[in-house]
Each structure stands twice: as C-alpha cells, then as structure tokens.
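User: hey, got a sec? need ABC transporter ATP-binding protein folded
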Amino acid sequence: MSDPILKLEGVFTNIAQYHILQGVDLEVPRGAVTMLLGRNGVGKTTTLRTIIGHWRAHQGRVMFNGEDITSTPTPTIARMGIGFVPEDMGIFSDLTVEENMVLAAVGGPINSARLDWIFTAFPPLKTFWKSEAGNLSGGQKQMLSIARAMVEERQLYLIDEPTKGLAPAIISTMARALKDLKDQGASILLVEQNFAVARALGDSANVMDDGRMVWSGDMAQLGSDAELQERLMGLSMETH
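Assistant: Yep! Here you go:
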C-alpha cells in the first residue's frame, strides 16, 4: 500500500493494569474508507483513542502523513487535520447546536458552503440550530457529533460506531452523509458494528481480536465470505 495517510507500527497501549493493544499494525490509505471491525472489547476504540492521543502508546509508532505523532498532544493532532467522532458523542449539552458547531470550527467562522452541505446531510440540525444540544434526540445528537467533525475539511476522520443504537431511518441518514464525505475524497477510519453499513461504505477492512490485528484485506472480500466472517468475528454479515 503506497503512501498511507496513517500508519500504526507495533503499537502497544496499556490502560492502568490492562494491556489493551498488543502490537497493532494498521495502514489507512488516502481517499478511502477503512473499516476497523471485531467483537466488542477487542481494542477498536482504544486504537482510535491512541491515534488521537487520548491514550498514549507505550510502545510502537503512530505515523500521520509520514510524521511521528505518537507523543503529540491531542489539540496539536486535531490541528494537523484529524477529526474524531467518539462513541459517546462528546457534545456540549448545555450549549446550542450552533455553539457546538462554532466551537468545532477552530479555524474561525463556519464556511457557509460547508454548513449548507451539513444542513443538507442532517436537516434536523438546521431546524434545531438555536436549541440546546441536550434537548435533541439520541439520533440528532449523533448527527451533531458527526457534523462537528465535518464542520471543517479534515485530512482524516476517525469515527467510532456512528450508527450504534439508532433507528433504521437515522442509520440511512448517517450512511448517506458518510458516503458523501467519502465521495469528497476524505480518508476515513470507521469502527462500525452494522455490517450492512460496513459493506456499503468500506473499501478495505481490518479485523481485531484480543488487542491484535488478525486480518486485513478488501471489504468486498470479507463482505462476501460468510465462512471468513464466522472465523474472524463469530458471526455472518448475511444475518446482520
């Protein structure tokens, strides 16, 4: 794989006494959607949080655009062009939708064309623009969480389970927005448990188990091979 935008080399991450990541190797190509898959608790979220600097690798390297960011502070990593959508959404409930978005636009005022695109992708955000984020529904809060990462054009988006617990109609909205982002040429590393979404969006896939990467390849190959899915993750996409 030539010139990946992101590369993890032998990354170990410990949290307290727990050894979560145990030598993770990962490459994320430019302009594509890379899926990070696996059972619950195998280290997917820890991988994303290690990349963004919330947790520190105890061994190994995290490389972004060829630069070692393993020990770089999180705010600096964000300014380098990496957007992060955490599983817990990370929005400010006592601020309005507008205030949440403005805070995320670290470069200054929100670009009007970018905001129009976000409103097209997530119409409820325009409707509730002046409302406190805490009053939004769960699906609307997730829209806001993703929109905050999209408010500025990033080189790389790290997105952790954006469709978790959402109704099918909201999942479809999320998938369309991520497809639009992909079509704009964005590089995305996506943790996703909804395999219909993973299969529709993913270009490549990496499967984790017990803090290690156990398989890497084309998403289309994984999506069409029920036996491989069962062996790697204990389930078949055909039933999800």
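Quick note: DSSP finds ten helices and ten strands in the chain. Let me know if you need anything else on ABC transporter ATP-binding protein.
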